[in-house]
Amino acid sequence: MLDAHRLPDHSPGSAEWHEQRRGRIGGSDIAPVMGLSPYLSAFSLWHQKAGLEGGPADTPSMEWGRRLEEPVAQKWAAEHPECDVQWAGAYVHAERDWQLATPDRLVLTPDGTVEVLEIKTSRSGDEWGTSGSDEIPVHYRAQVLWYLDALGLSQAHVAVLIGGSDYREYTIALDRDDPVQHEETQLMRKAAESFLYSIESGERPSIDGADSTVRTVRRLPDGVDDVTVTITDELADEYVSARDAESRAKSHVNETKARILDAIGNATRAARPDGRRVATRTIDKSTGETKSLSPARS
Questions:
Q1: Bias regions of kind Polar residues — which residues (predicted)?
Q2: Are residues 144 and 207 in the same domain?
């Protein structure tokens, strides 16, 4: 039994689909609202929800995530034949109409309990723990907890395909009697309500250094006027100082990359003495040369 109301189905990306989400906070929204998303800032989400900017442009990762959703869901179902895996749809909490949940699937267990199944794909497994644990990236954890809170459920499963062949499963539980988890869900609700209120009042979040924020600011001006705008000396000095620091940091990064590659030799990974991975290099198979050196995610 869900503590939520089912919403009408609309084609993803349609005007009705966007309107259904505009005044609500969904699972993919809560991480940006909380400042936890590596992909979208609160500033950018605010402008999307306010109707001042369109949604994020589709990327190959997003496309393949959609294409692989059903095969990964089928894999989870095959691993758990005792469960009935069903399409979920969109729901709002029975009392909090602004709390939206659109899980990938719902699972009916043999004892009649309803649980959430969320499907993910990832290029790297650095932020994913051992299969069978509850160690998933923090922004996905926020999303799953949001769904459980909105639907009145207690357990969710996350199935992820990493690098195209590494399949893993995780279980996330929500214990409403646990003081820490209770505080966590309350914090998310309050942040979501404050965010929605800020849209109504026209008080946008502060500009931060996220890539999505910069893209949003670049899109906002309507046309270009060939004029000069005076800014404060403080802002000008901060910009010049930041660019100088960026230049020095880029040079330092390039130097340390070269030193790590030199130390790696013919290997593909670099690690600390205690075994913690520092960086991995990608090889161009056609030339045998290094294409990139990627830092391990902490």
A1: 289-298
A2: yes
Q: Which residues pair with 292 in a beta bridge?
A: 282
* Residue 17 clears pLDDT 70, i.e. is over it: yes
The residue count for the chain: 298
93 and 191 co-located in one domain: yes
Q: Are residues 249 and 197 in the same domain?
A: no
Enclosing domain of residue 76: 4-211
Buried b (16+ CB within 10 A) or exposed e, 83-106: bebeebebbbbeebebbbbbbbbb
Beta strands 105-108 and 84-87: pairing type?
antiparallel
Q: What is the pLDDT of residues 237-260, one digit of tens each?
A: 888 998 888 888 888 888 888 898
Secondary element (H or E) of residue 100: strand 100-101
pTM of the model: 0.78
Residue 107 is encoded by which pair of tokens?
A: 């699972």
